[in-house]
């Protein structure tokens, strides 16, 4: 008699996972509302693709500090406590950002503060999830949460353009602040306070160094991080969404459509990938990473809005390889350093995305947006091939 593999229905039957699921949903949706609002706010005030891209990049670059220095909090303190504290602090900061007429410098400073706690929240979730979903239920649970992140981005990006058009940027930012507060309520009411898994008596800096050693000391984990960092290249379509929408003759709604197309494709890709046997998934890492970039080459032909959305959606479908990379990385990481190591990996990912966003914005100051996205696709194919080669060579000798 064969045992049925755990699936989405099994993990949704776990009360604590449903609370994590709900908290993630409202938080991600609100966060995307804010990204659309800030992108439009800065572009409207400055009429500069570079400044709009720089503001978007500020949603990634604070991970350079928060990832390595703060993510280990969830190894040393109860993960739920860390997540709730991060939600409250972000809700307060985003509420302040919604003040009408706030100078752009103050908006940027508050944005940095908000994003500083994003890797803390995500690393705490990564440390908590194997305790909530032990054994075989972990992989479908992680996959469902990653799909939820992208679904939340689709909803947030799609609603973002509409809400900004109807309520203005302040209204969208207040919706983001409310989402963090609701997330904290879900966590407090639905998740128990699991104890930290870190080794007692280890000093803060010692724990940071231990997490770094876990990441760089294994070629497989390094290769997975490299594959994740390829997203810093194919993110160009998101980075310059506002000027790209203007090139296509659209406004705020088109910005939301462009940003949502990639996320929609990612949801579809992960849904399809979850049906493929685990033994075959790792072989798809390289080809899918290259396809995520190659799809953008079609933008060189200056397609219309419908064709552009199709290309971005295809790129999103292929980028579902991150589901394989993410779950494999967590499973390869020891319990005692999981949050800290995940924070380092997230730092590398976000910094690569931040750099990619800034470079795409600067390029869009001198070149047409469709050409910038196509050039990013060409560079990404080469980078993805290199990362895939590292992954293939890091595999244990089958003999």
From TrEMBL:
Subcellular location as annotated:
Cell membrane
List all membrane-crossing ranges: 51-70, 91-117, 137-164, 222-246, 252-272, 284-303, 309-329, 341-364, 370-391
What keywords sit in the KW lines?
Answer: Cell membrane, Membrane, Transmembrane, Transmembrane helix
**Protein's recorded name:** MFS transporter
* One Gene Ontology cellular component: plasma membrane
Q: Which SUPFAM superfamilies does this chain map to? A: MFS general substrate transporter (SSF103473)
Q: How does it sit in the membrane?
A: Multi-pass membrane protein
In the record, what terms sit under GO molecular function? transmembrane transporter activity
- Would the keyword Transferase turn up in this protein's UniProt record? no
Q: Has the keyword Transmembrane helix been applied to this entry?
A: yes
Coiled-coil spans are none
Q: Which InterPro entries match?
A: MFS, MFS_trans_sf
Which species does the entry assign this protein to? Amycolatopsis balhimycina DSM 5908
């Amino acid at each position: 008699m064969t045992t049925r593999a755990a699936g989405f229905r099994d993990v949704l039957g776990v009360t604590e996972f449903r609370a994590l699921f709900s908290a993630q949903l409202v938080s991600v949706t609100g966060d995307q509302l804010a990204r659309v609002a800030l992108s439009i706010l800065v572009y409207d005030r400055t009429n500069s693709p570079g400044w709009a891209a720089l503001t978007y990049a500020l949603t990634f670059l604070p991970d350079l500090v928060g990832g390595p220095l703060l993510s280990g909090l969830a190894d040393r303190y109860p993960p739920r406590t860390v997540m709730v504290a991060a939600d409250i602090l972000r809700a307060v900061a985003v509420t302040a950002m919604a003040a009408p007429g706030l100078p752009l410098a103050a908006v940027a400073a508050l944005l940095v503060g908000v994003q500083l706690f994003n890797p803390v929240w995500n690393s705490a979730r990564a440390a908590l999830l194997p305790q909530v979903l032990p054994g075989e239920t972990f992989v479908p649970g992680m996959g469902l949460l990653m799909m939820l992140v992208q679904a939340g981005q689709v909803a947030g990006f799609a609603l973002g353009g509409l809400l900004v058009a109807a309520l203005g940027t302040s209204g969208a930012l207040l919706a983001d602040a409310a989402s963090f507060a609701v997330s904290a309520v879900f966590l407090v009411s639905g998740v128990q306070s699991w104890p930290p898994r870190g080794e007692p008596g280890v000093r803060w800096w010692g724990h940071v160094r231990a997490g770094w050693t876990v990441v760089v000391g294994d070629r497989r984990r390094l290769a997975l991080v490299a594959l994740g960092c390829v997203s810093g290249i194919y993110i160009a379509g998101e980075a310059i969404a506002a000027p790209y929408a203007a090139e296509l003759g659209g406004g705020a709604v088109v910005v939301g459509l462009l940003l949502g197309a990639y996320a929609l494709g990612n949801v579809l890709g992960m849904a399809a990938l979850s049906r493929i046997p685990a033994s075959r998934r790792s072989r798809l890492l390289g080809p899918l990473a290259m396809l995520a970039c190659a799809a953008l080459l079609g933008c060189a032909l200056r397609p219309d809005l419908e064709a552009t959305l199709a290309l971005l959606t295809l790129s999103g479908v292929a980028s579902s390889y991150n589901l394989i990379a993410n779950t494999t990385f967590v499973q390869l990481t020891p319990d005692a350093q999981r949050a800290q190591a995940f924070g380092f990996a997230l730092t590398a990912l976000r910094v690569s995305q931040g750099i990619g966003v800034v470079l795409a914005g600067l390029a869009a100051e001198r070149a047409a947006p469709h050409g910038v996205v196509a050039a990013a696709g060409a560079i990404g194919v080469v980078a993805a091939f290199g990362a895939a080669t590292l992954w293939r060579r890091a595999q244990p000798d089958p003999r």
